[in-house]
Amino acid sequence: MFDGSPSRREFLKAAVATGGAAALSACLDRTPDDSVPAGTDDFDALPASQHAWNDACQTDEYGNVEMPRHQVLLYLELDRDGPPTESDRSTAENAFRVLDRAYERSHEGLLWSIGYSPRYFDRFDDPLPEDIDLPEPRALSPFETPAFDRQDALVHLASDRADVVLEAEQALFGEVDTANGITVDADLSGVFSVDARRTGFVGAGLPAERQSELNGIPDGNPVPEHSPLFMGFKAGFAKNQATEEYVTIRDGPFAGGTTKHVANVRQRLGDWYDEEDQYHRIMKLFSPGHAEQGLVEGIGENLGDDSGIDAMLDRIRDDAEQFGHVGHAQKAARANRDEDGNVKLLRRHFESADDGIASLHFPSLQRGISDFEAVREAMNGTDLTDIPTIRQRVNNGILEYLFTKHRGNFLVPARRIRALPTTNGEVPIIDD
Ligand code: HEM
After folding, report:
1. Nearest CA to ligand 1 atom 35
2. Exposed, middle or buried, 289 (CB in 10 Å: 0-12/13-18/19+)?
């Protein structure tokens, strides 16, 4: 029974991390009170873009979007060589429709998407249209050696309900007969296999609850109780995020889609909590100006809907000379505006305790992957290392604490062509 007690919540989180049928069946004792809102048969009423999640998420009092609290990433390999067949496509689309029918498309039901990698599109004779900016993943700093996620596809499941994420995953692979009362009449087994399964969580309270015994978080439970992230601050202020519309591909056969970079970043927060004080944490994460002017209280809720970083960009070299530090947001934001001042990336990161290690899953949406690469290069701050105090990973934002383990690039097509699209943006089985 879903009684909302702390032990029950603990259990559900552990269940998402573990996965599997046993974990799910233990979750599924639903009472009428915790019923999950149903989905729809009226597929055309769903948003055209798979990545249009914001309107279906909760917002805080300032209008900042809060990502669903429980999330799973499934990295999938196609079972066959060469391009997918029409039968693969119709099976996949029917499996996806089970999710649409079963769960309301919201943080209380399920938000999800599927994206496809450059390697997937290499299965076709024709290349992707030239203006689709989807390179293979590569190392984005001189000091990282990530593994590259080149699996064919990435399914991303998200919900405030741990049991929904788990059940949706099992429905996708035919491990349950029904999903929220809807018959699972098609599933992805036989089309795709799961190569990697990664899980996580985000939101006030969850990192603090998970911190003890986690590799990367020092003893003493230092993560503030209400912080949505392990590093102890809020992120993703509305004015520092691209809009969904901005990151949406405008023209061509993939109009309505977006590109998605997903990094997995290990965090080693021993020194972050044991050697630094709050003043220096604010300096490193936001900027020296934020620390000096006392702009950030607690976990940063007082910032409202804007981190205020734009005022700190031109002074970055002076800050480095005067304070011996540059801020993470300050460095990254330099490359995160277009000529009209619009923000380019829509960051949707969440934390992970997979394998007992504190890490960050970092999905970022943008119109083209080069936008992400440019921002990540700006975050490296290599251009500032001529200033003696700024070293490649020391006094240089938060780089000292982050270790990139995986990178992958995906194209998240519009919903209409989500089932194994061709490089021409066609899904023959549906277009017929
Ligand atoms: C544990 C890791 C990380 C934490 C805790 C973190 C946290 C933050 C915080 C608190 C801010 C300022 C508030 C905001 O605008 O959201 C920020 C800004 C930013 N972060 Fe991170 N971040 C992390 C990793 C990354 C990574 C790996 C990237 C990759 C490029 C990144 C990209 C950015 C960008 C682009 C901004 C500036 C937003 C703007 O343009 O105003 N962050 N981050």
Report:
1. 332
2. buried
The token pair that represents 79 in the structure block: 């079972």
Q: Is there an atom of ligand 1 within 6 Å of 236 CB?
A: yes
- CB 360 less than 6 A from any atom of ligand 1: yes
Please tell me the distance between residue 308's alpha carbon and the centre of ligand 1 in angstroms. Answer: 13
The two three-digit tokens of residue 322, written as one number: 């005067």
Q: State the residue for tokens 């969904």.
A: 244
The label of the residue with tokens 């060469």 reads 82
- Residue identifier of the C-alpha nearest atom 18 of ligand 1: 329
Ligand 1 lined by 375 (C-beta under 6 Å): yes
Ligand 1: residue of 328, 338, 400, 402 to mutate (most ligand atoms within 8 A of CB) is 328
**Cα separation, 24 vs 15, whole angstroms:** 7
Per-residue pLDDT of the chain (432 residues; tens, 9 = 90+): 344 455 665 666 677 776 665 555 555 555 556 899 999 999 999 999 999 999 999 999 999 999 999 999 999 999 999 999 999 999 999 999 999 999 999 999 999 999 999 999 999 999 999 999 999 999 999 999 999 999 999 999 999 999 999 999 999 999 999 999 999 999 999 999 999 999 999 999 999 999 998 999 999 999 999 999 999 999 999 999 999 999 999 999 999 999 999 999 999 999 999 999 999 999 999 999 999 999 999 999 999 999 999 999 999 999 999 999 999 999 999 999 999 999 999 999 999 999 999 999 999 999 999 999 999 999 999 999 999 999 999 999 999 999 999 999 999 999 999 999 999 999 998 644
Ligand 1 pocket residue status of 345, Cβ below 6 Å: yes
- HSE-up of residue 393 (Cα within 13 Å, Cβ side): 10
Atom of ligand 1 nearest to the CA of 239: 41
Query: In DSSP terms, which residues pair with 266 in a beta bridge?
Result: 359, 403
333 CA from centroid of ligand 1 (Å): 9
